[in-house]
TrEMBL record:
The keyword Zinc-finger does not apply. It is found in: Cell membrane. Keywords: Cell membrane, Membrane, Transmembrane, Transmembrane helix. It is a multi-pass membrane protein. It comes from Deinococcus cavernae. The keyword Transmembrane applies. One of its GO terms (cellular component) is plasma membrane. This is LysE family translocator. Its main location: membrane. The chain crosses the membrane at residues 6-29, 41-65, 71-92, 152-172. GO terms for molecular function: amino acid transmembrane transporter activity. InterPro entries: LeuE-type.
Length: 213
């Protein structure tokens, strides 16, 4: 297997994984609708940075260590579950909070004021605290490692492929949701979005917490 064929083959698998709806999709859509396109793109950047970090970690063996060590995996899983539950319940709380003036905000203005560093941090931690992302790379990367390419270099390149695909897809979602914001940014719709996104995040957190490996 050449490096080019490995990258192309991995791009197909990573592309299918990227467009499959999941926690990343829920976070970006929620951010685009309740905050703004820029915040959603920065959230996506945090998510994809986490993907790249896990890819590099898998290439140097850190993720393999987490997979092999039950204690390390369990600690990371508990922290990740707690973080997702905290994030999800925060969204649900926002969904049930009554707004004093139930008027549709201007579509060009952010509905909820959240700093870009917080958006990036939310996306980054969601991925970094999910050991299943690391396990995914440990299982998948060896199948796309060319024999004549250093593992670290191959891992970085494969991670970049996944990162680029993720940024393109999530940015498209952010742009599409933002375009429909005139309707989606209505207070009732926002609360519905917060409720759906919060329930999804809690669901992913519980799934992670109850998983055995």
């Amino acid at each position: 297997m050449t490096l080019v064929s490995a990258l192309l083959g991995f791009a197909v698998v990573a592309g299918l994984m990227t467009i499959t709806p999941g926690l990343d999709t829920a976070l970006v859509l929620r951010s685009a609708i309740t905050q703004g396109r820029r915040e959603a793109v920065v959230t996506a950047l945090g998510i994809c940075t986490g993907v790249l970090v896990w890819a590099v970690a898998a290439a140097v063996g850190i993720s393999a260590l987490l997979t092999a060590s039950e204690a390390a995996y369990t600690v990371l899983k508990v922290v990740g579950t707690a973080y997702m539950l905290w994030l999800g319940f925060g969204m649900l709380r926002a969904a049930f909070q009554a707004k004093p003036h139930d008027q549709a905000p201007t579509p060009d203005l952010p509905v909820q004021k959240t700093g870009l560093p917080e958006c990036f941090q939310r996306g980054l931690l969601t991925n970094l605290l999910n050991p299943k992302v690391g396990a995914f790379y440990v299982a998948l990367l060896p199948q796309f490692m060319p024999a004549d390419t250093p593992h670290l270099l191959a891992g970085v390149l494969l991670g970049l492929v996944h990162t680029i695909l993720g940024m393109l897809w999530l940015s498209l979602l952010a742009y599409t949701a933002h375009r429909a914001r005139a309707w989606l940014s209505r207070p009732k719709t926002q609360r519905l979005v917060d409720g759906i996104a919060g329930t999804a995040v809690i669901g992913f957190g519980l799934k992670l917490g109850l998983s055995r490996h």
